[in-house]
Design goal:
This protein is of the alpha/beta class. It contains twelve helices and twelve strands. Strand 4, helix 3 and strand 5 form a beta-alpha-beta unit. The chain binds iron/sulfur cluster.
Length: 333
């Protein structure tokens, strides 16, 4: 049933008001998320349920519930898993080195769904460490990716910097022997400010070979920057614990769209905010499935005469193969 919306403008005849929806492209699933979800689904197909997954495979409740219905069991710690031959999948965010070691000690069959672009950051951090450099990690404290990257090296080897203020206060052990890395899902603009300050203070600091903020994060933010000034409001489909989704909402606000909201499902839309607009931007975080974007558009279509236009900012064709133990079985199909 469609809930009557007191904010909805209607013509005297009761016709719906027009709403132009500008749909950001690219949006939604990135190659790392597709690979992580495929890893769990493929493992369930090959080995049968249950398949254990450490942490939410990606930060999206809909995805997690869908996989749970197929036979995935989500845990936060390997100690929650009974002795088993079932696969144990590590999430796309990456894990500290202690986790695969723990899995080995428990004789678990581990499948690592860490995004290869996160693994790249891990390997670069290790390389810096081997070369005797202190590593500054720009990221958000407590995010699983940050915990995973810091956990590649002994305690104290990686120092976390979250803000420009942190970068200003940072005191290195040796200013001439520093490198930096970043979380893959940060705000491109905020990170550029932090990096600029670190470079100004420590000119010898070693940069990543290629930006750590990944192509998907960058492209989704660029698409939002393009659409935000053209609309009255913006919806980012995504979860509150999804870093890249939170950044998209911030980017929309900073690009001139004051009505920007992070929304998980259509039921979460605040119609006091979105009930009286003529142009709406929609995007989705890298862990949000397209079906939820469609659900949101349908909710607007129930209230407005919706016309959808896709605003394309970049073309993506990135693909990551499944973890090795699952690959042969795919090729055999
Ligand atoms: S957002 Fe980027 S780093 Fe994270 S899973 Fe997707 S492609 Fe990988």
């Amino acid at each position: 049933m469609t809930v009557p919306n007191p904010q909805q403008k209607q013509s005297p005849e009761g016709a719906k008001s027009p709403l132009k929806v500008l749909l950001c492209q690219p949006r939604g699933f990135c190659a790392g998320v597709v690979r992580a979800i495929d890893t769990v689904e493929r493992a369930i197909e090959i080995y049968g349920p249950p398949v254990y997954v450490r942490h939410e495979i990606v930060h999206n409740r809909y995805v997690v519930e869908s996989l749970r219905a197929k036979g995935a069991i989500f845990v936060e710690d390997l100690s929650e898993i009974p002795q088993t031959e079932a696969p144990v999948v590590f999430s796309a965010h990456g894990v500290p080195k202690a986790v695969p070691e723990d899995a080995r000690s428990r004789n678990f069959f581990a499948l690592d769904a860490t995004c290869p672009l996160v693994t790249k950051v891990h390997r670069e951090a290790e390389l810096h460490f081997r070369r005797g450099r202190e590593i500054v990690l720009i990221g958000h404290a407590g995010h699983p990716e940050v915990i995973g990257t810091m956990g590649q090296l002994p305690p104290g080897a990686v120092r976390l910097v979250e803000t420009v203020a942190d970068a200003a206060a940072f005191v290195p052990k040796d200013a001439g022997n520093l490198a930096y890395a970043t979380q893959t899902t940060l705000s491109v603009d905020d990170t550029a400010e932090v990096v600029a300050l670190l470079k100004a203070r420590f000119p010898a600091i070693v940069s990543p070979h290629k930006e750590d903020i990944c192509y998907a994060t960058t492209n989704r933010q660029e698409a939002v920057k393009r659409v935000a000034p053209m609309v009255d409001a913006m919806i980012v489909v995504g979860a509150p614990n999804s870093s890249n989704s939170q950044r998209l909402r911030e980017v929309a606000e900073r690009s001139g769209c004051v009505k920007a909201a992070l929304v998980q499902r259509a039921a979460d839309i605040d119609w006091n905010v979105f009930g009286d607009i003529a142009r709406l931007g929609i995007t989705a975080g890298a862990s949000a499935p397209e079906i939820l974007v469609e659900e949101i558009i349908d909710a607007f279509a129930a209230r407005y005469a919706v016309e959808v236009e896709i605003v394309r900012d970049a073309h993506e064709d990135v693909f990551f193969p499944l973890p090795r133990p699952l690959r042969g079985t795919v090729a055999a199909e």
